[in-house]
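> call design_seq(struct)
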């Protein structure tokens, strides 16, 4: 039990302090704080809600059920939610170690891979962000599925195969990014399980063996396909229009992201929760990056028999990145730290096994590699502790993000909303102006700018801002509501009524617009009574 205890201690030390962290407005608000079912804890209605709704373009009912369980056990205590994330990350760390030790027989190498996974700063986002629970929870089922598959390979039975399928289904219900797991199993069949070893030389025997190994995973491929269909349906509204980025630009960004993640692996600095997609992607740089990835992949493919651990590690990395690489663009990010949580396991594996194999014949080289490994892990721990503090609360998160990527309209908008809630109107107005400068089509930014100006007593400027955006805001319920509210504050009841009605015509569920209409009617009645 020595290595698991050391790994658990490393996670506990690296992530100490999260007990005092708050929820952040960045998605925690939508996933948790604004959801009545979450606040109520476990209930049959909550279970039906978790399975029956898409949350922010995702269907991950198991993740939502985990939030309901947290709320049932500890109420809406943000520290408890954070500790559950850390516990899941610790379980993933130990699970990865146990899987690699069992399949390879190398305890020290397995521990080093698990330690890199546990302590790398790129993984802080998945652990310290409560809304990223789906990363750590789905990875737990990912590793359980791999372990169950190894047990099935050792002694195939119907029940063991059913267990593999069941665990995989649960993982997909935690996060659909696991659709590539059947391909990971094929990589494990190559190494370390050695299920291709008996294949004779030649393409046809190899393809025949591959076909048989793929066929036994047919139920898993079926689940992956079903998950893809559900995910595409759920995220239809979040997908960026094809006109925003052409297919060549998406491919270029995908190739660049593969290399970006490797760069951040080596030098994890300037990390942020949102890296906005640029208006245009450099196709030449993307082509160069794609060429590098292709050449590296072909070279590794040629060495598959000689360096099997490199083959499995590299294609684990590339393969598990496919669902989030951006060829089908969802959201406004060009890449994201949380997307590396599972993929980087492959790179860690390739690095550790590569160094170990290279230094194995030389005692001094092994000693130097051991010292270097300890130094790297200590440095990663320090960097992780620093990165962790960024997630302490919404303001620290947003201010850090803008320091890293100032041309970020969504973060400017979110920070402005937070500042306005605390009555810090001048600061909020400055960030809102920057948000609409960077994203002129962000209608919510214009409406919030006007409302904050009004709250700060600048009604004339609020009206000017709304008149500026009015020609482009016919379809924005937020702007129509702001027009109505500012008119009401100026005592102009007819324009206020029209603004509220236009907002409700666009979005009949807009409760604030309904409240505004009631205020207009009350003000009109009061004015009528005062003139009698």
């Amino acid at each position: 039990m020595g290595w698991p205890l050391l790994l658990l201690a490393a996670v506990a030390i690296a992530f100490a302090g999260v007990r005092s962290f708050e929820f952040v407005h960045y998605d925690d608000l939508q996933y948790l704080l604004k959801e009545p079912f979450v606040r109520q804890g476990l209930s049959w209605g909550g279970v039906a809600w978790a399975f029956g709704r898409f949350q922010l373009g995702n269907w991950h009912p198991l993740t939502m059920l985990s939030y309901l369980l947290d709320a049932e056990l500890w109420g809406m205590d943000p520290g408890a939610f954070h500790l559950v994330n850390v516990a899941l990350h610790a379980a993933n760390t130990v699970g990865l170690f146990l899987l690699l030790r069992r399949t390879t027989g190398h305890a020290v190498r397995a521990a080093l891979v698990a330690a890199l996974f546990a302590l790398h700063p790129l993984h802080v986002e998945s652990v310290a962000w409560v809304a990223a629970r789906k990363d750590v929870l789905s990875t737990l089922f990912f590793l359980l599925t791999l372990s169950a598959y190894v047990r099935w390979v050792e002694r195939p039975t119907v029940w063991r195969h059913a267990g593999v399928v069941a665990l995989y289904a649960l993982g997909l219900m935690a996060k659909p990014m696991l659709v590539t797991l059947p391909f990971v199993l094929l990589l494990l069949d190559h190494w370390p399980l050695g299920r291709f070893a008996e294949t004779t030389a030649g393409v046809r025997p190899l393809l025949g063996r591959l076909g048989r190994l793929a066929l036994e995973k047919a139920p898993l491929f079926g689940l992956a396909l079903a998950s893809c269909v559900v995910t595409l349906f759920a995220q239809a509204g979040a997908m960026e229009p094809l006109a925003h980025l052409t297919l060549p630009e998406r491919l270029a960004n995908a190739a660049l992201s593969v290399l970006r993640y490797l760069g951040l692996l080596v030098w994890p600095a300037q990390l942020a929760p949102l890296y906005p997609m640029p208006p245009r992607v450099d196709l030449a740089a993307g082509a160069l990056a794609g060429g590098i990835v292709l050449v590296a992949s072909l070279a590794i493919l040629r060495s598959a028999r000689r360096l099997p651990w490199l083959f499995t590690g590299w294609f684990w990395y590339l393969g598990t990145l496919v669902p989030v690489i951006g060829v089908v663009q969802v959201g406004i990010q060009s890449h994201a730290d949380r997307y590396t949580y599972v993929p980087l396991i492959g790179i860690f594996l390739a690095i550790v096994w590569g160094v170990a194999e290279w230094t194995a014949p030389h005692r001094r080289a092994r000693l130097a590699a051991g010292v270097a490994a300890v130094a790297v892990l200590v440095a990663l721990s320090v960097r992780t502790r620093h990165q962790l503090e960024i997630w302490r609360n919404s303001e620290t998160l947003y201010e850090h993000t803008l320091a890293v990527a100032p041309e970020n309209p969504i973060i400017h908008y979110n920070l402005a909303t937070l500042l306005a809630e605390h009555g810090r109107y001048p600061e909020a107005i400055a960030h809102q102006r920057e948000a609409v400068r960077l994203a002129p089509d962000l209608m919510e930014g214009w409406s919030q700018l006007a409302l904050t100006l009004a709250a700060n007593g600048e009604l004339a400027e609020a009206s000017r801002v709304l008149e500026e955006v009015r020609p482009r805001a016919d379809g924005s319920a937020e702007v129509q509501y702001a027009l109505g509210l500012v008119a009401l504050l100026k005592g102009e009841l007819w324009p206020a009524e029209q603004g509220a009605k236009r907002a409700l015509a666009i979005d009949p569920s807009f409760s604030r617009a309904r409240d505004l209409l009631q205020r207009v009617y009350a003000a009109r009645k009061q004015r009528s009574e005062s003139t009698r």
